[in-house]
Each structure stands twice: as C-alpha cells, then as structure tokens.
Amino acid sequence: MIITIASGKGGTGKTTVAASIALSLAAEQPTPPLFLDCDVEAPNAHLFLHPKLDEQKDVALLIPLVDEAKCTHCGKCADACQYHAIAVLGKKTLVFPQLCHGCGSCTALCPEKAITEIPDRMGVIERGQALVGISFARGVLDVGEPMAVPVIRQLKKWVTAQPGQVVIRDAPPGTSCPVVETMRGSDYLLLVTEPTPFGLHDLRLAAQVGREMGIPSGVIINRENGSYPALEEFCSENHLPVLLRIPFERVIAEGVAQGKTLVEIHPKYADHFIRMFTQIASLL
Amino acid sequence: MKIVLTTVSPDLETDVDPRFGRAANLLVVDTDTLEWKAESNPGASASGGAGIRAAQFVADQHAQAAISGDFGPHAFEALQAAGIAMYVYGDCQNAQQAIECFKAGQLQQVGGPTRGECDSGHHGQSA
User: Fold this and answer.
1) In B, which residues are within 8 Å of A98 by CB distance?
2) Deepest of A8, A28, A57, A184, by most Cβ within 10 A of its Cβ?
C-alpha cells in the first residue's frame, strides 16, 4: 500500500506526520516501511529518520545539442517545442536547458538529424537504511534547477517496495506538478491541515487534486486549538474522514524543533497511527 | 528600419505594454514609412518560455530592434543571439510617442537583462 502525505499549505506538519507513521509501522509490521522524501526542493525527513544514505545516483534529463554545421534553421524543432526550450533566431538555434522537459520531440523531428541528446544533471537521488529498519530514499534537486518532477519520477522508479511493504511518500507543499507526480500511483492520500483560513484554503486545493486523480483521501488536523467549524464542514461535505487530531501543544512544538517525531514526544501516538493505518486499510 | 513594440492594444494609438514575453500585442513598425501591423503575442499565453516565444516572433519578422519595458534573461539571450537591439520605454506612455523617441535616438538601449528570472517552478509541466 502506498500512502502519500500532502497538505497544500506548507508547514502544516506533513513530515512530522509522515515520519511518525513510518516509525509506528516499523515497530508493528513484519517489514518496516519504505519512506520516500519527495519534497526534492527542500527534503527534511532525514532530520527525523536519520538514514545512512550510502547509495547515490545522478538524475539527468536528455536535452538537445544542435550541430550548427548541419542545422538549416528550418524551425521545425522550435515549432514542436511547447515549452519554448529551443528557438531558431535568424541563423542561430538556441537551447534553453532550464525550460527543456526532455521529451525528445525536437530530436525526432529534425529533418537534418542535426540534434543529438546530451544528459543535463538536475539533481541526485539517495537511499539507505534509517531508524528501526525503515528503508529510506530521497531526491535532492540541484540549486537553481527549476524542475522537480523528473527527480521525483526517477526516485519513485529507483526504489521498489517488497511484497507487503507499506510505502510512505512525503509530498512537497502546494498543488503543482511535483505534488501531482508524488501523488500519482498512491492508494491513499493523507492531507495534513491546520485549523486556519490558510490551512483550509490550501486543503481545498489539495483535496481537489486528490479527487481529480481518483485517490481516496482523509484528513489529519494538526495544531488543533478549539473548534474551527469551517474546516469540519468542508471535511464532512466532501466526505473526507478526519482520521486524527493533533492538539496545539507547546511540548510537541519543542520536541519537533529538537528533531523528534510525535511518537518520540508522546509514545501514545504510535497507537493512534497504527489505528489510523488500520482504518485506512479497511477503507480501501 | 523594422522595429517591434510591446503594446496593450493592436493599434498605433495604444498604451505601451511594459512586459515583453507576456505583452498582449506586438506592433511591427517600419520607422521609415510608418507602415505597421499588429499581432497578438504568441508568448502571452505560453505556459513557459514566453520571452523566448516573443523573441522568436521578433526574429521571424526580421526586425532590427525590440522596444519594451522589460527584458528577462531568456528574452535577452534570444534577442541578442538574433542580433536584435533592445530598447526600454523609459517615460514613453504610448506607442506613437515611443516610435518618435526611438527615431530621435532618445530611448535607452539595454546591454543586459533588465530583471531576474521569473519564478519558473512549474512552468506548465503537465501532470
């Protein structure tokens, strides 16, 4: 089973929850889970799960290299590129690597065979063993690279779960392509939110993505501090079960700031997470 | 001399559009005859690489100069590669005024991008 933890809004507690679920399951299941930190622009789950990342692999995209001696500047490549990553400007054909999605259309369509493809590194994927036997993997996008999706895609391909092994994917914040790529292929979507207008606003968007992708979803309300009816209404109207409520507590904030997960701060949360997992499994 | 201006409406009596890649219209003007034509900017609706797309248009017109309020790094690189000179509007508010100023040599030519890169975190990479 693949569970993706997403939120819409940043800072709601995705990683805290994801790491806590992984630790709870590791103590309970015959095979400890596989944890993927898919927030490749700012991965931070390692701070909680302390993996020994002893395997690395570069992620590169194949981008076009134009042989100006063969190029007739016919413009077919530029017409084909919907990202405008290649442009024919008078007697010059320019490639903009940061806009290229590596689809290969320009190479395939060039009538002069003037385009070859060269790898352009954009990040790295890493894996190793973390606490309590958890298999851990993460992607790290290089500074200045704008596209996270290829790194996430490679990360998902690189690690395979063993039969019966639960996969926990920690998603990036937001609802754009990197989040969609992280969610894709998941069996269940856990949306971590906070009872604030911002939290609710972004939960709406994230829940919409999940619905569009046909992934069953549930909500965890973090930092709950009294009642926030608008959030409850949204969840019930959209048939999103509230699976867990984590109170707004100073001791939790302090613990997380010291790199502790919820189950380390309050061991009773291990039971909460196991129960939640059982509930999710029964929903599927 | 053929020049291209970024404008709000597709005519000569229009305000200038200070954006290059995302300008609504591109006005192609012959500064000698004042013949002109306006086209909607193919870059305006691009999911990414708007500046490059607009620069491609300017190059395809065989224009020698582009006038706008702003040239980003990609647009600058593309226009420079095509050998097209770039000028900024400065105080000019409408297209006719800008053409006059250009002819009088009063517009400032730019030698580098006039701003940093746009946020390019998710330029239309479809899911």
Assistant:
1) 120
2) A8
